[in-house]
Design a protein that fits this description.
Elements (H helix, E strand, L loop, with lengths): L6 E6 L5 H11 L3 E3 L3 E2 L14 E2 L2 H9 L3 E7 L2 E6 H9 L3 E5 L2 H10 L4 E6 L3 H11 L4 H15 L7 E4 L3 H15 L7 H18 L1
Parallel strand pairs: 1-7, 1-8, 2-7, 3-4, 8-9
Antiparallel strand pairs: 3-6, 5-6
Helix pairs in contact: 1-7
The structure holds guanosine-5'-monophosphate.
Length: about 210
Amino acid sequence: MKQKGILMVLSGFSGAGKGTLIKALLKKYNEYALSISMTTRAPREGERDGVEYFFTTREKFEETIVDNGLIEYALYCGNYYGTPRAYVEEQMAAGKNVILEIEIQGALKIKEKFPDSLLVFVTPPSAEELKRRLEGRGTESADVIAQRLARATEESEGIEAYDYIVVNDNLDECVEELHRLVDASRRAPVRCQELIKEIREELKGFAKGAK
Ligand code: 5GP
């Protein structure tokens, strides 16, 4: 069945392991494409422009908003983050499932604009584990860690807005679970409109022929 790819939003607390999960999913299956966001946050050590993010200035970001170049954007901990439109549209048309790794405000905007998008929330097995992972990463100051934990508390209030929740404990199992969810979701009638239309038209053709 030839089908347009789905738009999948993957959110989760900072430190939930979304990045690792997405990398593993992309490596194992070639039907996914990861959208690279634009941000005004400064690159962390080792991050490259055009790989983790398109790093930009506030001014350029605001220009892109005005030009309708983003399908959504949000302010998160004082910085802008947004999803460039062109890549998402191209990849979906090519049949790829496009992954947006974005936070909850963006996720809700996506669901509003694209009701057949799939919203998945990734969480570590416990809050204790989340704190441990954030501290272990060693890339953020104690202040930023505290800010991100406070943000996680707020975000936990919004989890019910998502379609599914996956617990990232064992990475391989989590990858499989996520892939199965996407596969099953693609069979929902709302995401198979083309097929439904074709079958209906063919059936109508039969009915005419029988007259
Ligand atoms: P970080 O600074 O840790 O890379 O990202 C901070 C938060 O911004 C994460 O929750 C991440 O998912 C989210 N984020 C990254 N890109 C986008 C985007 O394009 N739009 C929105 N709304 N959030 C994003």
